[in-house]
Specification:
single chain, Rossmann fold, SIR2/SIRT2 'Small Domain', 2 domains, six-stranded parallel sheet
């Protein structure tokens, strides 16, 4: 069975109503990114960071998977599919995809600030004073700027096995996620589904551009691959 690896970014979730990472001015909901998504921001103002992610979490619980998420579930019936997502939402899980790696963490989980192995499911607001079983403050289970990506090596090994790579709704500008494309086997088809194709043409990569939003482009490519 052919192995298809899918790399997804903010564009696939945006069509479900999830707000994308930041606006043109570099602000996220009016905040400087480093205020709410960095260890320094956390050290400076835990309450601000927690309030920010509480709003994101609450919004996530109001949205649903879209046609692009569902098309990837259909793909699983015909291929060995693994999804590597930059998104912190659970829309892939809710749509029914079964093999997902979250590069940047998960919004519906929290973890201990002292012991990163203590991770808990979490759907309510997280507050200053909420602690783990070892009595240390809980924080969002999110990879912030300046932090390493714990599952990066796992993602690299998965990309190396791909017979086909799908890149959906990501500009491929955020590293280290953007580097994953360079670990593919030579000449495999790489479908890039994004209304604004922004990647640089690379002679060594077999990129096929689908200049459509995810809900249009993903079902189209899935039907093409199944046929």
């Amino acid at each position: 069975m052919k192995k298809i690896v899918v790399l997804t970014g903010a564009g696939i979730s945006a069509e479900s109503g999830i707000k994308t990472f930041r606006d043109a001015g570099g602000l996220w909901e009016g905040h400087d990114i480093m205020e709410v998504a960095s260890p320094q921001g956390w050290n400076n103002n835990q309450k601000l960071v927690l309030d920010f992610y509480n709003k994101r979490r609450n919004q996530l619980l109001t949205v649903k998977p879209n046609a692009a998420h569902k098309a990837l579930v259909t793909l699983e019936k015909h291929f060995d599919v693994k999804i590597i997502t930059q998104n912190v939402d659970d829309l892939h899980e809710r749509s029914g995809s079964s093999n997902i790696i979250h590069l940047h963490g998960e919004l519906l989980k929290v973890r201990s600030t002292k012991n990163p192995n203590l991770i808990y499911p979490w759907k309510k607001d997280l507050k200053v004073g909420d602690v783990c079983e070892e009595n240390s403050q809980l924080r969002p289970h999110i990879v912030w700027f300046g932090e390493s990506v714990p599952v990066l090596n796992t993602a690299i090994e998965i990309v190396k096995t791909a017979d086909i790579l799908l890149i959906i709704g990501t500009s491929m500008q955020v590293y280290p996620a953007a580097s994953l494309i360079y670990y593919t086997k030579p000449s495999i088809p790489i479908y890039i589904i994004n209304p604004k194709i922004s990647h640089q043409k690379t002679p060594n990569l077999n990129c096929i551009d689908i200049a459509e939003k995810a809900t249009i482009g993903v079902p189209k490519v899935v039907n093409l691959l199944i046929e």
